Amino acid sequence: MAGSFSNSWALVKASANVLRLDKELMVFPLLSGVATVLVLASFVAPLALTGGWQSIGGDGQDPSYLAYVLGFLFYLIQYTVIFFFNSALVGAALIRLDGGDPSVSDGLSIAFGRLPAILGYAAVAATVGMILRAISERSGIVGRIVMGLVGMAWTLATYLAVPVLVTKNVGPIDAVKESAQLFRRTWGEQVVGNFGMGWAIALMLVSWTLVSAGLVALGAQFAPTGVFVALALAVAGYVFLALLSSALKGIYTAALYRYASTGDAGGFDAGIVGHAFRPRR
Fold it and tell me: Is residue 281 part of a domain?
């Protein structure tokens, strides 16, 4: 356990070092978060205001076809937004790992240049997501477990799809295939525990929760306003940690891809990156 934690912390520090050099990389998860909230609101608000929930609810047991259509459109738009800004983040991080000095505009330019492929990949991911969800909703507990495992396998197979799309002029299907090949060739088919930074991110969240509880308790000693300020600070801290976590994971994904495709992890220790996974026994 101690070795796993030490390795995870080393990954966080290596990713944080890249982020320290390019703090603007946190802009990408911020823009992604704002955009995903706007997309969600654009779907939920009209249904809530017009009473459209009843029209897509079907017979009360199974969703109507309209629900599946809207669900697919939601997945498609949401995935496009997420993959777009992930591509911008990974692209900018790769510039830094290659020795450059990226800017926000560099990342956005990379993402815009690969927009058709990103949209195609979003369509593939949305289709897979809807199929898995439809099967899961019509299955018993065993079927849901199986679909959960299939979903996990899909996540692992596509973990490096975004950096493949960013660096190569390939379509979404070829990106998924190459991502799966890189995963199998470099680390095998079984992931050891959480991805590199899981332990450290969890520690940050727990630590901030304890700090937030202390702030709220301290604010309660003064006035209701103090509690409000303490809660606002707590929420701001959680938002910051979410942005930090997304930025670090994007940087780590870029380093993983660089290591998998070239054997060089840039500013990372190749041994640390290589031990984030290990071959199946």
Answer: no
State pLDDT tens for residues 49-70.
666 555 555 555 555 677 778 8
Structurally, the chain folds into a number of domains equal to 1
- Residue 280 inside a domain? The answer is no
Q: How far is CA 27 from CA 53, 84, 105, 119, 159, in A?
A: 35, 13, 11, 21, 22
Residue 41 in domain: yes
Phi-psi region of 268 (alpha: psi -120 to 50; beta: other; left: phi over 0): beta
The 3-class SS string of the chain reads CHHHHHHHHHHHHHHHHHHHHCHHHHHHHHHHHHHHHHHHHHHHHHHHHHCCHHHHCCCCCCCCHHHHHHHHHHHHHHHHHHHHHHHHHHHHHHHHHCCCCCCHHHHHHHHHHCHHHHHHHHHHHHHHHHHHHHHHHCCCHHHHHHHHHHHHHHHHHCCCHHHHHHHCCCCHHHHHHHHHHHHHHHHCCCCCCCCCCHHHHHHHHHHHHHHHHHHHHHHHCCCHHHHHHHHHHHHHHHHHHHHHHHHHHHHHHHHHHHHHHHCCCCCCCHHHHHCCCCCCC
Provide the domain limits for residue 173: 2-274
Reported pTM: 0.84
Backbone angles phi, psi at 183, to 5 degrees: -65, -50
Q: Determine, yes or no, domain membership for 86.
A: yes
Is residue 233 within 8 A of residue 215, CB to CB? The reply is: yes
- Residue range 193-243, pLDDT digits in tens: 345 567 778 888 999 999 988 888 887 787 778 788 888 999 999 999 999
